[in-house]
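look at this record:
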Amino acid sequence: MKIDAIDKKILSHIQLDASLSVGLLSEKVSLSKTACWRRLNKLQEEGVIKQRVTLLDSKSLNLALMVYISVRTNQHSQKWNIKFTKVVTSIPEILEVNRMSGDLDYLLKAVVSNMAGYDRLYKKLIQADIFDISSSFVMEEIKATTELPLDFIVN
């Protein structure tokens, strides 16, 4: 899909506030409501806009402890991968699971209420028959954003 300057403006605004009405968004990008609505629909149909969400504050929801969990496995079979995927996708505290290159096999991001909450998560996670787990707890969040830079769009 070719993304022009107006599409970039639309994406920039909705990344900051997905609750903007089409009317307000159309004013911000200097388009008619109909033209803005068509562009939004096209961006969604093409998969540029994956979904519109509301971001919640984890601390307000008693999930104040963020943890990155490094996972190493000595099993690289399809059977193990299916089991691992089933386990990690069933744990709601796990927000992200990424298969990595290098020494690490997987990196997980999770939120828990406290160390006891982490221990409960850990006990669920080891059901996947993991070779090695190492966890690092976030002491201070310096930058956190979901806003992607739009300067790298190639048409």
Q: What stands out?
A: The CA atoms of residues 15 and 146 lie 8 Å apart. The beta strands are 65-72, 94-99, 106-112, 132-137. Residues 59-137 form a domain with the Alpha-Beta Plaits fold (CATH 3.30.70.920).
